[in-house]
Structures are given as C-alpha cells and as structure tokens.
Design goal:
- By secondary structure, the chain is mostly beta strands.
- It has one helix and twelve strands.
- The termini are far apart.
Length: 161
C-alpha cells in the first residue's frame, strides 16, 4: 500500500521529530493545469477534470460562486452523422453559504447555435450564461447577480484544434 510520503507528497521531519507531509508538488501540478482568466470582477478559472474515457474531457469553469460543468467529446471521435453537431450538455452549480453546492441549471444544446441558460436560486443568484462557438473559440458570456455582487463579461474558455 502506498504511503502518503510517495510523490506527489513529500515527507519531512521537523525539529521536534514530528512528521510533516507536504503536497506542494501536487498543488503545483494542479495549478499548472488551471487556466486563470482575469476579469474586472475577479478571476475566472477553467480546468479539465480527468474522465474514465480518455477521449472525453469535462471542463469546469468557475466564476465567483458559480461552477459550470461541460462534458466534451472531440467532434472527430463522434459518429459521422454527429461529427459537426457540437452537441453539449451544460450543468451549472452554485456554492451557497450554509447550503452548499446546489445544481441551478442543466440543459443540452448545440454549440454552433449557442446555448443560453437562465440561472437562478432566489434570492441568492439570478441571471444568464451563454456558451457559443466563435470560429474555433468556445466563448462563455455571462451576466448574473450572486450574493450581492454583479458578474458580467464574455471570455474565450477553450480554443478547438
């Protein structure tokens, strides 16, 4: 059985001979895979989550208390009839204080046409999100109020090959 002292964790001894376990390398590896996009309302984070299917990726986008989850299978791996459909599933969650993580929207749509969701968890959150394809760029447009703050903008999340 592997110990916590094996990579990505490291084991150290302090002056009192206590064991200290550091996960610094694991944290650095994770941070290197996170795309941070500066916005006027704070940072927007984009990262891919590992999947059981090596050909599929699930992207997570975090804006303030909102988390958008988008499972993605590259078009070249879909059957020919669906290869250019760009069908996507979008799930939106909110992290509400004292409540926790709550799903506030879910829909299926076509990325080429654009997918707009109305999001809400009154009185904490209300607004809309749009995902669309602009050339090879997947763009997230958002305008919502959450926990007393207003978030608005449009950012390129990923660029397709």
């Amino acid at each position: 059985m592997p110990s916590f002292a094996e990579p990505p964790f490291k084991q150290f001894q302090d002056l009192n001979d206590d064991t200290i376990i550091s996960g610094e390398s694991a944290i650095q590896e994770f941070e290197s895979k996170v795309k941070v996009i500066k916005t006027e309302h704070g940072d927007l984070f984009v990262y891919a989550v590992e999947s059981n299917d090596e050909n599929a990726k699930t992207y997570k986008i975090v804006i303030g208390p909102i988390e958008v989850t988008v499972p993605w299978v590259p078009a070249m791996l879909l059957p020919r009839s669906r290869a250019f459909s760009f069908a996507i599933v979008i799930e939106v969650y909110a992290n509400i204080p004292f409540v926790g993580k709550v799903q506030i929207a879910k829909t299926v749509g076509n990325l080429r046409d654009g997918v707009t969701l109305t999001i809400g968890y009154p009185p904490f959150i209300g607004g809309s999100l749009t995902l669309k394809l602009d050339g090879k760029d997947v763009v997230l447009g958002y305008s919502f109020d959450a926990l007393g703050f207003h978030y608005e903008g449009s950012k390129v999340i990923i660029t397709l090959p």
